[in-house]
Amino acid sequence: MKRLTDAERDAALSTVPQWEYGALRGGVIRRVFVFADFTQAFAFMTQVAFHAEKADHHPEWANVYNRVDITLTTHDADGLSQRDVALAQVIDRIAEGMQR
Ligand code: H2B
Fold it and tell me: From residue 18, how far is each of 32, 43, 54 by CA, in Å?
């Protein structure tokens, strides 16, 4: 999987405007989700987990009660790849209507 060029990255990021780009580790995107409670947060995480496993692309994430903090990057590309953007799009769709 190859890392996106700066131009590809800018175009891709415009499809997931709620994700924040960071230069950390060659390029990452991050979004924090807040749900009504832990049950909602974990239901969201379960759906994301099933998708991630199918796609063999996995989030780095932390959960504290109703909050899920997600970072996406591609280790073997040393930065951001199309797979990160594709996963972010799916995560946004799953979260749609679930967030507090
Ligand atoms: N997920 C993410 N987000 N980035 C990766 O580089 C990655 C992954 N690599 N899931 C995959 C798994 C790799 O470790 C396995 C061995 O295919």
Answer: 9, 21, 24
Distance 23 CA to ligand 1 centre (A): 19
Average pLDDT over residues 2-25: 97
Average pLDDT over the chain reads 97
CB 54 near ligand 1, within 6 Å: no
Phi, psi of 47, rounded to the nearest 5 degrees: -65, -40
Domains of the chain, each with CATH number or no CATH: 6-78 (3.30.1360.20)
For ligand 1, whether the C-beta of 58 sits within 6 Å is yes
In this predicted complex, what is the ipTM? Answer: 0.89
Q: What is the pTM of this model?
A: 0.95
Higher-confidence residue of 1 and 81: namely: 81
| 20 DSSP β-pair partners | 30
Nearest CA to ligand 1 atom 10: 57
